[in-house]
Amino acid sequence: MAIVGSNNKIKLAVLISGRGSNLQAIIDACAVPKFPAEIAVVISNKPDVFGLQRAEQADIPTQTVDHKSFASKAGFEKALQNTIIPYSADLVCLAGFMRILSADFIDHWPEKIINIHPSLLPKHKGLNTHERAIEAGDKAAGCSVHYVVPEMDSGPIIVQKQVAILENDPPDTLAARVLEQEHLAYPEAITHVAGNILKNDA
Predict the structure, then answer these.
(1) Order of all β-strands in the sheet with 157-164
(2) CA 126 – CA 183 distance, rounded (Å)
């Protein structure tokens, strides 16, 4: 793992697969001088996504590791690992990264990978969370930032944000309200995790 620099900030590797709205929330948070993290690199498993443009506009290094270029998941993950390592990241942040990582990859980063999921975990792991919350008759939906463990969407929760499910709420409207909370939750979770890393490295 990296040795935290004298500027008292941890280094982030942010992994994306798309437009990068949560990435933008992290970029904006890192622009605040007292925020305890900085983005060392943004890595996408898909070329030409808008999230890469967001990073480039903020003068953040970008890399693409296209999963379709590899014959196996193991080959992709080895390349991904080798792309992250030179940037000395203290924390890997999955921000709309749409690949399930293997236990072998996760074991390289014990308690150093976090993810955001659009439900109030442990409810509604996996996909189509907003539709499922509405169909279940839930009174509330939300998002969870959690540590990544080999079992999908099952790691310890760091931060949760909740929104009410309104009568006749369509999934896309609910999703938009939850996304607003995601943009608050992710920087909050990074602040919490950074505090632990900085304390342990002190």
Answers:
(1) 62-64, 37-44, 10-16, 91-94, 113-117, 140-147, 157-164
(2) 20
Give me the pLDDT at residue 7, please. 73
- Give me the pLDDT at residue 201, please: 78
Tokens of 113: 């990978």
CATH of the domain at 131: 3.40.50.170
What long-range pairs does 125-133 form, CB within 8 A, spacing at least 24?
125/152, 125/153, 125/154, 126/152, 126/153, 130/171, 130/172, 130/174, 130/175, 130/178, 131/171, 133/165, 133/174
3-class DSSP state of 15 = strand
User: H or E element: which one contains 94?
Assistant: strand 91-94
Please check whether residue 58 lies inside any domain of the structure. yes
Stretch (H or E) spanning 185:
helix 171-201
Amino acid (1-letter code) at residue 81: Q
* Total number of domains constituting the chain: 1
Which residues form the catalytic set?
117
Which whole-number Å values give the CA distances from 154 to 1, 38, 42, 103, 151, in the listed order? 24, 26, 24, 13, 6
The residue ranges of the chain whose pLDDT is under 50 are 1-6
